[in-house]
Design brief:
Layout lengths: L2 H8 L8 H12 L4 H20 L3 H21 L9 H17 L3 H14 L4 H13 L3 H14 L4 H19 L5 H6 L8 E2 L2 E5 L5 E5 L8 E6 L2 E6 L5 H16 L1 H8 L37 H11 L3 H4 L2 H7 L1 H4 L7 E6 L7 E2 L5 E6 L2 E6 L8 E4 L9 H4 L10 H9 L4 H17 L7 H20 L7 H10 L1 H9 L7 H17 L7 H17 L4 H18 L4 H11 L2 H8 L6 H19 L1
Parallel strand pairs: 7-10
Antiparallel strand pairs: 1-4, 2-3, 3-10, 4-9, 5-6, 8-9
Organism: Marchantia polymorpha subsp. ruderalis
InterPro entries: Gramillin-biosynth_MTr, SET_dom, SET_dom_sf, TPR-like_helical_dom_sf, TPR_rpt
Keywords: TPR repeat
């Protein structure tokens, strides 16, 4: 062996040997008697990598494993037949462990590369086959993942972790192809399962006024699943630290785009005002699990720098304000929060395909979270060609355009145009509402007035609003009346919150039904509060009329529709189980009791509304 052998090693791009490593290999060529010492050093490096791995210092572990594997491969390339093969087992383990460290960091492509490096030397190395399968699963290449995992299972039958991984990948592949997700246990027990991405009958097209958008290629029924997308990055920070969660998300994005060709291409299509890329229409295959998408070998995509990543995050990330229900959003990401109480955390996340959904104040889609997976469903029956939209702002304000300035557009949807027409005719009611809410919020910490007085204040406000609706110069349909009422929806809600016990059950039922219709009018399918209202309404009707009554059966159909939009289709039996598990009759029934109570009892029956509405709406 001589200089020509070293030259061949240096020519191998996969080795990327450092200068000191090259000198070491040249020294070994000239001094083969030191081979035993070298093998011992290789093993020490691998074990050092293990120590860093066990401390969860994955970055250091990866650096050491890769150095170990590089030198081991270089040694195998230059050594004589007598010593060849002695470094191979160490290189296999170093590459395989490096793959696991990448898996821990969710760097799927790098994990796959390291696992395949190990398998190139040991095709039947079980751990490397398993890790290759997990990397492919992370990339949502489920058919390839299944092949790797089944190969591992053949070599080590009945291994529990491998059998579980095979079952999970089979389920994920089925999900990604059919859009069928078994979420019953999640809805009942809050244990989010693994969910693959799913892309239904949609296409990406340019629009006349809003850049790119997602459109249906087939008709969809109310509540039908359109898209499932997993968050590609999360940003968390303690409350009180201004925008730190956004900064953390931006850094996570730069790391992700640097480590993955696919993610780098996805970042290329995020809306950004720093680069004129908003008109580019990405290939849909870039977002479909197991698609045949491949990068253009003739074009190199640079990952975003931190400045561009911050811009992407500010415009495209979702936090609780855009999901519409802060509690549900944080619950959906509880696995990322760990043991940190949600109340102490600001959190935001980035989803790739949903970032292409344009805004409407009358959205065609409802959004819900299952763990980190975003489920997007049709809010009503939609014909083919309909643009899929969500609401970027969950607001009852007439000045919603002020809230959309961050995205640099003015919404011209039907509801916004309607607001322009009706605004002059309800300005006195809006001012009255603003004054009441300002006074109420200023006094809220002291709670000086009795609840009955608060109820009367909001009842007078609502009476004034209803008079304005009746006296408008134009005739409104029920949906348009709901749009006007939504401007004052906090007043309608607080009337329920402070409703005295002596108010009749029928009046209470009417209040709840009216508020539920207000949410339906603006397609507030992202707000979990409407499910609480629906369950409360059903309980009130049951107490008033009985379960066998026509009124109860009609109300149940309305309630089922609200749950269908938010959570997907479910049969009557499961709806009963869900209502029992998540919307306890024991907590709802006291609101509808018509017997006078002490102040203490009253506080008990209003708590359900205060905890779920005041905290998120005031």
């Amino acid at each position: 062996m001589g200089r020509e052998s070293v030259a061949s090693v240096l020519a191998a791009p996969s080795l990327q040997l450092m200068a000191d490593e090259i000198r070491y290999l040249k020294h070994l060529e000239k001094n083969p008697q030191e081979t035993g010492t070298f093998i011992g050093e290789l093993e020490k490096w691998r074990l050092a990598g293990n120590r860093h791995f066990n401390k969860k210092d994955f970055e250091s572990a990866i650096h050491i494993y890769k150095r170990c594997a590089r030198l081991g491969r270089g040694f195998e390339s230059i050594t004589t037949e007598e010593f060849r093969g002695r470094a191979t087992p160490i290189v296999i383990m170093a590459d395989s462990n490096c793959a696991q460290a990448y898996l821990e960091r969710r760097q799927w492509e790098s994990a796959l590369q390291s696992a395949e490096g190990a398998l190139s030397l040991g095709p039947q190395h079980v751990k490397s086959l398993f890790r290759k399968g997990k990397a492919l699963q992370g990339l949502q290449e489920f058919k390839k993942a299944l092949a790797a995992l089944e190969a591992a299972l053949e070599l080590r039958p009945y291994d529990d972790s491998t059998m579980a991984a095979v079952a999970e990948v089979k389920s994920a592949y089925h999900q990604s192809v059919t859009g069928e997700f078994d979420l019953y246990n999640y809805y009942l027990e809050n244990l989010p399962p693994f969910c693959s991405d799913y892309v239904g009958s949609v296409e990406i097209k340019s629009t006349a006024t809003a850049g790119r958008g997602l459109f249906l290629t087939e008709s969809m029924k109310l509540g039908q699943l359109v898209i499932v997308s997993n968050a590609i990055a999360l940003g968390l920070a303690a409350r009180g630290k201004f925008n730190e969660h956004l900064i953390n998300l931006a850094f996570a994005c730069t790391r992700l785009a640097t480590s993955s060709v696919r993610y780098a291409h996805q970042f290329r299509y995020f809306h950004s005002r720093l680069k004129n890329q908003n008109a580019r229409v990405p290939p849909l295959e870039l977002y479909i699990p197991g698609s045949d998408w491949a990068p253009d070998p003739h074009s190199k995509v640079e990952p975003p720098g931190i400045e561009e990543a911050l811009e992407i995050v500010r415009i495209n990330s979702f936090d609780s304000s855009r999901i519409g229900n802060p509690e549900a959003f944080l619950d959906g990401l509880k696995d990322a929060l760990g043991h940190t109480p949600p109340a102490q955390v600001n959190v935001c996340a980035l989803w790739a395909l949903p970032s292409l959904l344009n805004h409407s104040c009358l959205p065609t889609c409802a959004v819900s979270l299952v763990g980190k997976a975003m489920f997007i469903r049709a809010t009503r029956d939609l014909p083919a060609g309909t643009e899929l939209t969500i609401s970027y702002v969950v607001s009852d304000s007439l000045d919603r355009e002020q809230l959309t300035k961050a995205w640099n557009f003015a919404c011209r949807c039907e509801r916004c145009l309607f607001d322009e027409i009706v605004k002059p005719h309800i300005s006195d009611a809006v001012q009255m509402f603003s004054d009441i809410m300002s006074d109420f919020e200023a006094r809220l910490p002291r709670a000086l007035e009795p609840d009955k007085l608060k109820y009367e204040i909001f009842s007078r406000l609502i009476h004034h609003v209803e008079q304005r609706i009746q006296n408008l110069p134009c005739k409104l349909d029920d949906r348009q009346k709901g749009w006007v009422r939504f401007i004052f929806q906090r007043g309608y809600m607080l009337r329920i919150v402070f409703c005295p016990q002596e108010v009749s059950r029928l009046e209470k039922i009417e209040m709840v039904a009216q508020l539920l219709n207000i949410y339906k009018a603006v397609e507030a399918g992202t707000c979990g509060l409407n499910l609480q209202l629906a369950a409360c309404l059903l309980k009130g009707v049951e107490l008033e009329y009985g379960r066998s009554s026509h009124e109860y059966q009609s109300t149940r159909k309305v309630v089922a529709m609200h749950f269908h939009v938010a959570l997907g289709e479910m049969d009557d039996d499961f709806l009963d189980k869900l209502l029992k598990a998540k919307f306890s009759s024991d907590s709802l029934a006291p609101f509808f009791n018509e017997i006078s109570r002490s102040e203490k009892g009253y506080q008990q029956h209003t708590f359900i509304w205060q905890s779920r509405s005041q905290q998120s709406l005031l």
